[in-house]
What does this fold into?
Amino acid sequence: MALTRFLFVVVFVIKAPFTYSQENDPWVLGIGVNVVDNSGSRFGELLDIENNWNFSRLIKTTIEKRFEYDYGAELSLSLNEFSKGKKVNDNYNTEAINYFAIDFMLKNYTSNYWQDARHANYTGYFIGGWGGNFFDSVINNSINFGFGINIKLGMYLWLNFQTLGKFSIDNNTPGNANHLQHSVSMIFWL
It folds into this structure.
């Protein structure tokens, strides 16, 4: 009987803070993969995966702070590469170019306007903010706009799909133009 009480207290002590954090502005961690399309074709060749999408070093990590279920502030890091032979700004790439991005963005969970966020099986959002995109060692600043959806897999586990348009402010080199970044991530509420 004493062992049962002890286990009950241990479970309660461990579970209570975790549950409380979920209900009050949680932190959200994500890890996934990303694809970059910098073909320069605007919307003409969105699904030309073979020539335009870059699939090398696909890592993406995110950390987000949620506020009142409807808003979030996110910091993300992405690593990829523009492969040789892929289209970059309407020209075929003659050498591999490393791609690293750091983005700070704000989210508005618009699906919460028509559903209860605490019991929803999905959440849709709009996202926007600043991006620093490194093409080899040259930085290109961008204004980012996009949208995404989170699909609930478990109590604290979600699958995230996101598309982000990155619009260049600097346009420093031919490789630093507007581009699209698509990602798929697993996200965890802490």
